[in-house]
Write a structure and sequence with these properties.
alpha/beta; nine-stranded mixed β-sheet; 11 helices
């Protein structure tokens, strides 16, 4: 019965953490539930970088009831001074007697020290309950905090015969309204959204999150080696609300760069070749504390990112349509490919969902050594 109760409260903490996905920047999402004598006395979720952590908010709600309680926390309480004081100290000071932690913190600054401090002060600590669920919620944070490289999710949409447009170039809409709503959720949950300049030239997209309620907007990132983006493109507007970063080569025209920068557009130089050095680009975006990116590129950009092993997760959406046409737009992932089937990139941890009539396959690429 005790294990059942522990799991119930931890699932509640995980639900609270999940509700904040897309709001915490480079910080993890964390939920905390305080329970005393069978009653929930405090709840909290980390909502914004630099503000109170989940444990602090739960303790504030509980007040004096925190003494003698059990804390269910989805991530190891921090033990260092960052933008806020250590949460492990706050739990100790409040008189919490038991702490159930879903998973340890991969941040090298924490990495088990928060748990050690709690145990050193006599608190009972157990670790690992629903740990996989917690790690999945923070997959972007878990990569970024160790590598300082953004977690990249590739999203594609195509017909069953692999087309991303008809032979006339028509692509609105391949997938259903339900699928498009899910994509807007994905945009909200990533700090940046990346496309190639050809997509901007062809479609003039907004690259924003649009739903029934306002959402956190991603940074718009355009791979544009020669700075060909039209000056009237919608991605160059509203820099105060939704900034744009252009990834360019040093070979891009200097006058074009100056004109864009004069409008408040950030231009990053990513290599000296004719094309953007995508690995360097990801490093530079990581340095700017962009920890997660949703890639919605065309076939060549998608293929180039995959070839360079810069993709961490794939979301592949298929509409139950066959458009045909020998001149129809090519497939949504285009690169030179492999000589043998054994060398192919395979997907692990598959999840299959349905949005309206469409099928969505999510998986994690396994790259061959």
């Amino acid at each position: 019965m005790e294990l059942l109760n522990d799991e119930t409260y931890m699932r509640l903490a995980l639900q609270m953490a999940e509700s904040a996905l897309g709001q915490t920047g480079i910080n993890p999402v964390v939920g905390c539930v305080l329970v005393k004598e069978g009653r929930i006395v405090g709840m909290g979720a980390h909502l914004k970088r630099g503000e109170g952590h989940a444990e602090v908010l739960a303790l504030r709600m509980a007040g004096e009831e925190a003494k003698g309680s059990t804390a269910y926390v989805t991530l190891e309480p921090c033990s260092h001074y960052g933008k806020t004081p250590p949460c492990s100290d706050r739990l100790i000071e409040a008189g919490v007697t038991r702490v159930v932690v879903a998973t340890t913190d991969p941040n090298p600054v924490v990495a088990g020290t928060g748990i050690a401090k709690l145990r050193a002060h006599g608190l009972e600590v157990s670790v690992g309950l629903l740990g996989e669920e917690s790690e999945k919620l923070n997959e972007a944070f878990n990569k970024f905090i160790v590598s300082r490289m953004p977690f990249v999710t590739m999203k594609t949409a195509s017909t069953l015969d692999g087309r991303i447009a008809s032979k006339t170039g028509d692509s609105k809409w391949i997938t259903s309204a339900e699928s498009r709503a899910y994509v807007h959720t994905l945009r909200h949950r990533h700090q940046g959204i990346l496309v190639g300049v050809q997509t901007v030239i062809a479609d003039d997209p907004q690259l924003s999150t649009r739903g029934d309620v306002p959402a956190v907007q991603p940074v718009r990132i355009i791979a544009d080696s020669q700075l060909r983006v039209p000056l009237g493109a919608r991605v160059l507007t509203e820099q105060d609300r939704q900034p744009t970063i252009l990834l360019a080569s040093s070979q891009a025209p200097a006058e074009r760069r100056a004109a864009l920068e004069a409008r408040g557009i950030t231009v990053l130089t990513c290599g000296d070749g004719p094309q953007v050095d995508l690995t360097l680009a990801m490093q530079q975006l990581g340095e700017r504390e962009i920890s997660s990116i949703l890639l919605e590129g065309g076939g060549r950009l998608n293929g180039a990112m995959l070839e360079r092993r810069l993709i961490d997760k794939l979301v592949l959406m298929f509409a139950p349509k066959i458009v045909g046409g020998g001149q129809a737009a090519p497939v949504n992932i285009h690169f030179d490919g492999y000589a043998k089937m054994d060398d192919a990139i395979t997907l692990d941890r598959l999840r299959v969902e349905q949005f309206g009539p469409d099928v969505c396959i999510t998986g994690y690429p396994l790259y061959k050594s």
